[in-house]
Amino acid sequence: MLLAAGAALAGGLIPGPASASSHREAPLIAADPTVDNTDLYAFVSPDKHDTVTLVANFFGFQEPNGGPNFYPWATDAHYDINIDNDGDAKPDLTYRYVFSTDDRRKNNTFLYNNGEVTSINDENLLFRQNYSIQLMDHHSGKSQYVVQNARVAPSNTGPASMPDYRTLRDQAIAKVYGGGVSYAGPSDDAFFADLRVFDLLYGGNLSEVGQDTLRGYNVNTVALQIPSHMLALKGDAKRNPNIGIWSDTERQSLKLAPGSAKAEGPFVQVSRLGNPLVNEVVSPAGLKDAFNGLTPDKDHTVQALLDRVNVPELPQLIEKIYQIKAPDTPRADLVEIFLTGISKKVGGPINVDLNSQVNNMDVDKNEFVPSEMLRLNMSVMPAAQPNRLGVLGGDTQGFPNGRRLTDDVVDIAVQAMEGAAQSGQLVEALATGDKVDANDVAFEQRFPYVAVPSNAAVNSAVQTKIENKASAFASIPTAAFVGGALGALVLVAGAVWMWRKRPTKARHRNNRPW
Amino acid sequence: MLEPPFLEPETVGLRRWWPVVALLAGIATILSVTVLSARSEPVADAPTNTHVSRQTALAQSVAKLQATLRKLPGDAPAWAQLGSSYVEIARITVDPTYYAKAQGALDRSLTLRPDGNGPALMGMGALANARHEFALARDWGQKAAVAAPHTAEVYGVLADALTQLGDDTGSADAVQKMLDLKPNVSSFTRASYYFEMHGRDDDAQSAMNRALGAAGAPDEIAYSRYYLGELAFNTGRLDEADSQYTQGLAVVPDDPALTEGHAKVLAAQGKADDALKLYRVLVTRAPLPQYILEYAELLDANGRSSRDQYAILAQQQRLLEAQGATDDLTAALVAADHGDKAEALRRAQAEWGRRQSVFVADALAWALHVNGRDAEAAQYAEKAAALGWNNALFAYHRGMIAYSLGQLGDAEKYLDTALRTNPHFSVPHAPTAQKTLTQLRSAR
């Protein structure tokens, strides 16, 4: 999720000069929401243990009543999901999504649909998008289309337009050549958190929590379910069960120099996301911007990044305000979580073999390069009773071993920053966390697992109590939701963000406001 | 100097000094959430547009930041963000008192974090640009680039300053850096402007098409549509301009710039009453000097009183200057056409002393011309053409100067160019250009 400075200023760009026509101005922070990575998930599929499901979300804070344009995918960008299975911090496989628009509105109408849409190819659906996935094998240098011209599930334009969205959504599940299934389209934002918790954490008051700031918003989702052996090094998920995953988006630039304004030159990486914890580490904004343009193989060369991992700012702030002693630095435990994966072989304080590629039997430890990415051990089978605190709750299938939709990364992150991963003990004083322990809408039992997108305005969303086994809390005060997506950004703007990536504006980047 | 109370609750858009009913309109804007009226076509769900106006969004953001800063007064990034938000509000509401507030917040941020404070340095650059202190903006922008070399927006601030300063190579470098860090609506639009200023109209169009292609959020789409509309309007393609502005308004119905585009098109189509009605709504909602000037000129052309509008412009200028900002460029042009000619020249010369860009060369040329100093005017008009910009107004100025100098061949050439480029380039001046051109041709 994105927050942030940019978000506050975003919403987009205001056109128009402030003075006479000679001076063309634009808002300070440029949002680019369509290509903004908000979340990445990776988990062994609970109903198909020999497959992995990867979910990448983009373009956050979508107010469901977002007409007439709603929330299209960028057609001038690459959306990439990368896999590093040999631990050299370079992609071994890339699933590259490219979207195209099939706009049947022409100049006759602005309507997304001009009647009820009962199937994904209903003639009433005027604005359509399709996508293809190219699987790039970086070792062989070969690439092939594994999904071609599949239908993107449309934005949910309302209960009368799309009375049975689930049918449309299911029709958008495509087969992947070589094995697996794929979905691209909107979903209810799976991230759940009270984004005010960081602001108030520093305010020394943990009482105003319990409200899922993302309630009611949708996101754009790509979900990919692939047989595990296809992602593993040498195709052997038994010998090499550990993979690293990150998503990135890129767009071609433009050259001013004489010639032309054609799109040319290399694609520029504009957004990147691996581990949801990374945002706290890479704040402040200057480093965050650098990080967004960085490929993982370069992470270990950026001293500022390494310093931020080894000497993180958040524990110091928590100590100042709550007098909870910050763990001693340098934080080798965070280096394990962020940069190497948890393994006995990396010499860190978390002496457990969990998810590092260095544990793959066919990986040479000397070739291993630390980098920031999500790391999943595909041999850890789905837990019968998933614990939202993941590994810290004794559930080794959970975050930071990959990330499931139900993992409470906010609470996990606070605990991890306070040293819980190396001590093996939750920090009691912070144990209740943000009191948002689950998504307001239940996830599904089968692919794509994310919930169908909402069709009701965020303002109208009814607040319901979220039961928390660990603590009983009194009824949550129904907060006055400031209208619209940007209203939610108000709530988070200024807050220190952990775990989320940023965009700028309009539902944008979640970064610490600068 | 009175310490600005920048932690006081904000009532964004409150135009206290205005004699018109802007206050109510402003508050209505802040509080309103735009909803498209239900369409007449049979459709299952009336398309609703809950696009929150930018002003509302900013006001909310400011309120949140203020609350944070009351609790955590040491939060340097929040101060920087508050400062930048104030700059943004100043730009939208044309309320220059926000410059002082922005200054206060940004100063505080820099005091708390004096080294490597990219966001505050960038905010200072944006503030300087907004106050038209372009040399200062360049300096701040360069410091910001050192502190945050991977932040694309820093190069946007620099590019804007360098363009206004007339540093052509410098601004090209900055725009290219911005493109190489973040190719998006913001950087593509700046590239388009660069191309347009250099007479590369096809490239300007391509770049703007790329901007639209990269646009996703409603405001990005509105922004791209506006500048696509402008490119079309400025090259005389009225239908295309109309189409772009209209498509933009379908996405953000109350967008001020798109509304101005629409009003301009109505005027060019001869629908004066409709245009005047729309301008009136526009200037009440978004009192930008450019809009007020266009409204005034249209009133003049239709025999209506424009006195109030010029009074408002003058008042805005005074308030701007009271806040330490200057806009001698605009003031010079307005004065040359509608006010005191001596003042026009004084201001244009003052601005030329500060920066020697094509914008100022053109303004100085025209100011000299209205003061009867055409030989000198011609030299500056030539400087204004140095980049190759196919700018109809510049060509018109150059043509009228040549005409005054008795250089009839040149006069005909430049006036013809002006009208071919955009027959609707100016409500008061296009008719003059046409009359003069007709005269020149019949005299041949």
Describe the structure.
Chain A has one domain (5-256, 265-492). By secondary structure, chain A is of the alpha+beta class. Chain A has helices at residues 5-9, 165-171, 196-202, 228-231, 278-282, 285-292, 303-310, 314-322, 332-340, 409-417, 420-423, 484-492; strands at residues 37-44, 51-62, 77-84, 93-103, 127-137, 143-151, 174-175, 181-188, 218-227, 242-254, 263-273, 374-377. In chain A, the strands form two sheets. In chain A, strands 3, 4, 5, 6, 10, 11 and 12 form a seven-stranded antiparallel β-sheet that branches. Chain A is built from twelve helices and twelve strands. The radius of gyration of chain A is 22 Å and the shape is globular. Residues 1-23 and 462-514 of chain A have low confidence and may be disordered. Chain B has 444 residues and is mainly α. Chain B has a domain at 1-114. Helix content of chain B is 73%, strand content 0%. Chain B has 23 helices and no strands. In chain B, helix 7 (152-165) packs antiparallel against helix 8 (168-181), helix 14 runs antiparallel to helix 15 and helix 19 (358-370) runs parallel beside helix 21 (392-404). Chain B is globular and about 75 Å long. Mean pLDDT of chain B is 88; it is low at 1-5 and 10-44. Chains A and B meet through helix 1, strand 10, strand 11, helix 6 and helix 12 of A and helix 2, helix 3, helix 5, helix 7 and helix 8 of B.
Q: Mean pLDDT of chain B, rounded to whole units?
A: 88
How many beta strands in the DSSP annotation of chain A? 12
As a percent range, the share of helical residues of chain B equals over 70%
Structural class of chain A: alpha+beta
Radius of gyration of chain A using CA atoms only:
22 Å
| Structural domain tally of chain A | 1
Strand tally of chain B: 0
Which term fits the overall shape of chain A? Answer: globular
| Percent of residues in helices of chain A | 10-25%
